[in-house]
Amino acid sequence: MPAACAVDKTDKTEFTTGKVTLGVLRLCTSAPQCALVGPAMVDFAGRVGLVPDLCSYTLLATGTFGVVVEFRERRRTDMGFPHRVILTAREPNHSNTFIIGPGRQVQVNGSRLSLSEGLTPVESVLFEYTNNLHVGAIFLGQTNWTIVLDGTSVLITGVGDGRFPEGLQGLCMNITDAESFKDQTHSPDSCDTVDTHPPDSSINCTTQTERCAGLLPDGLIQKCGDSLPLHQPFFEACFQILCKYPDQGELFCHFFHSFALMCKPERADNYMTMAQCPLNKCADTVCRDSEFCELGLSKVPHCRCRAGVKKYFKQRETTCQNQQASVSIPMCVLSEKGLNVSDLHLNQESCQGTVDDKEEQITFNFDSNALCGTKVKEQGDKFVYQNIVQFNSSSDSGVISRKSSFKLDFSCFYNQPTLKTIHFHAKGGNGIQEAIQGSWKYNMSVGMFSDINLKKPFDFSKGIKMNQMIYISIESEGMDGALLLMKADDCYFSSSKAKGGLKYSLISGGCGNPKDKTIKVFPAKGNRGTVMRIKMFQFKGGNGNMFLKCKMKLCLSTAPGCKPNCDSTKPGNSGGQGNSGGQGNSGGQGNSGGQGNPEGKGKQRRSLDTLETDQDDTGYFVVPI
Predict the structure, then answer these.
(1) What topology is assigned to 421-624 in CATH?
(2) If DSSP codes are grouped into helix, strand and coil, which group holds residue 179?
(3) In what order do the strands lie in the sheet with 610-612?
(4) Tens digit of pLDDT for each residue in 394-407?
(5) DSSP-derived secondary structure for 109-125
(6) What is the pTM of this model?
(7) Tally of CA atoms within 13 A in the half-sphere of 269 that contains its CB
């Protein structure tokens, strides 16, 4: 293991007065040096390895200080780049935590540290802020360590009079044992679950390998080749990354700069110019947490969406609940397209999005009270509510626009009711089940009442007498009744729960039985269902059992044939349209589940508390009477 080297006093360095500079400390090329560029690391022993996932890892730690790096994805979700560096310095009576993040922002114990040109001391740590666009930190102790960060790479150098401190550990000591140095405290959940990406066909690995082979000018290799035998490991790390990761962010130049800093720091910027590598222009660019900085084609820094954010956006789903539809768009998606929040709207231009700065997204929504130009259409057995997030071209003056087009369809839908089981509470004369219908859910309820206003749930304890008038309400709740209509399409009484018994029609095609003038059919309030008025009877020669079987249907209220075209002059029909004079208004009493006779005793002929699907009549629910 190499020893830390002593400082050459001819450099006139004085640690005690704080006149040390990172460049002077790095002049001692025999010092132990560890470099991290993107996910590639060269440890103190010259071993090369890749950080395996998007967790946080300890680079170096002793009993007095620690260096932890948080990794985040950029263009690929299977490769992590340094995002933040967390430094811990243990003082005699307390500890200080320093967080160095994007844009060279530094926090000390949660408070922002303002850095000025030169050195800023904070107890045993010195921070360097220079015009060559990086941040450096120096731990002063028995062995002095320098840490240089530029947003993509981390360079650690040890300078002192002795060997490595006892107990020194971390990736810099052994990159091949990365799992042992994972920092659980700063690692997000599931950070070790990494996607598998196929080879990038746009990358010519031969070209990138040749590029990495010429990592530094010959003169610099000769200068450092004997005293700093890290050219070969840097070459290996370079082509391992560039053969996988698209070098649109000048990643090669970060390898170049890191090696130049380790070899001849005072000439590093000159070598960058010779290699036509731009200085780290992203160093002072602060992006959102969901973004990373990258140089564009014009070599101007831009904030780009992280691959994980784009993956989430591509797999996005509309949130459908409580009759509201909403979709969220990451703000970085708009930034990449050069769009502003005010540029987007729904079909109705006045309906714009709401920005959530914490989640870094903008959300668009519509509901039954504010449809915002939503289009409703029937698709098979679904009724789809669709809207579009779109670019408002009128926000650009003139006849042309240089902003990207944007169009995002999102929708929620209701399914036709296909209830398989519905509970019936005999005590309150009410049955209710929450039926999940596609993306939106609504409730279907069945109630039996003794009055036309549906205020009095039927009292089964007294039994049902012949010729007694009962009112059966079948309604939906949690559904838009303005555009959709729920109706009983077919209802009948049967003497058997299964198919094959005696049968008497009550409703057919949404209209009452024209042969029975005692049957009346009304629309429930708000087009949410059907109310039937029935005068009780019994089957001749039957066993006294009666089962109500109904099939419900959902349709667009404006569609032809949705509202029953019943002849109101015939028995059993109220026209099926319009206001039923309050007959369909249950006022919520039909869902009380606890009204009527609280005991449920008396002459009730059948005490079943479930409604089951008639296996031979698909889509019908069965009510035992």
Answers:
(1) Immunoglobulin-like (2.60.40)
(2) helix
(3) 520-523, 529-535, 469-477, 440-449, 430-437, 421-425, 610-612
(4) 555 555 455 567 88
(5) TTEEEPP-SEEEEETTE
(6) 0.69
(7) 10
